[in-house]
Design brief:
The protein is an alpha+beta fold and 219 residues long. Helix content is 50%, strand content 18%. The strands form two sheets. It has a four-stranded antiparallel beta sheet with strand order 1-2-3-4, with helices on both faces. It has a four-stranded mixed beta sheet with strand order 7-6-5-8. A hairpin with an 8-residue loop joins strand 3 and strand 4. Helix 1 packs antiparallel against helix 2. The longest helix has 39 residues.
């Protein structure tokens, strides 16, 4: 159940981009690819009566490039699928069953593209699915800009020093932070001192809350 739902959400999140790229690719290749092939074979295409051959070749190359991008997106999602990530987690944690994950996921609190269960956190665009809540030390955000748009990553800082990230809408961040405050061992919020300690002196960060919350390690 969990794998199927997250997989559907993953493709839903990409469908608009794939459709836009696909439409533009089809337009460019239908219009410019035949003319480019004719020119390569030594013929003069009709399109050359209205456009420079450099433009024809250029737009054809752009169409082929976009085709490669679309194929790369599809291949990436197929080779790095939700199911593959979950199966890797189960293989590394043989004491956990798929049934346990499904049960936890079905009762998890969904906030946008993040599902926070009692024992695990899930998101279809995380590199690791799922993430054990007991291993989360710090929850914070970071931003990255694409032209004029600011994007937000939810960062789950783990006890081993690794960080699992998931792109999230800005409006969901306050609710996500509040949800993690229910866990007695997790520090949540964009406190720069905590983020610094996590990156530079994680043992000092663990002493603040994580190591003093024995209840978080109980079943």
């Amino acid at each position: 159940m969990m794998i199927r739902k997250l997989t559907m959400k993953l493709w839903e999140s990409s469908i608009f981009l794939l459709l836009v790229i696909g439409a533009m690719t089809a337009f460019l290749l239908v219009k410019y690819l035949p003319a480019s092939l004719q020119a390569i074979q030594g013929d003069i295409p009709k399109l050359a009566m209205h456009e420079e051959m450099s433009n024809i070749y250029g737009w054809c190359a752009m169409g082929l490039f976009m085709l490669v991008i679309e194929a790369a997106i599809v291949v990436r999602q197929l080779t790095n699928s939700v199911g593959k990530k979950v199966r890797r987690y189960l293989a590394e944690n043989p004491e956990v069953t798929q049934q346990q994950l499904d049960s936890d996921f079905s009762n998890a609190e969904q906030i946008g593209n993040i599902w926070i269960g009692r024992k695990w956190t899930y998101s279809y665009n995380m590199n690791d699915i799922p993430v054990e809540n007991v291993k989360i030390v710090l929850v914070y955000t970071e931003t990255w800009r694409v032209k004029r748009k600011i994007n937000y990553n939810l960062c789950l800082g783990l006890v081993n020093g690794n960080v699992v990230k998931s792109n999230v809408p800005k409006n969901n961040i306050p609710q996500i932070m509040e949800a993690y405050k229910r866990f007695p061992h997790i520090l949540s919020g964009d406190n720069p001192d905590y983020v610094y300690l996590f990156r530079k002196d994680i043992n000092a960060l663990l002493e603040i809350k994580y190591r003093n919350s024995e209840s978080c390690f109980q079943e």
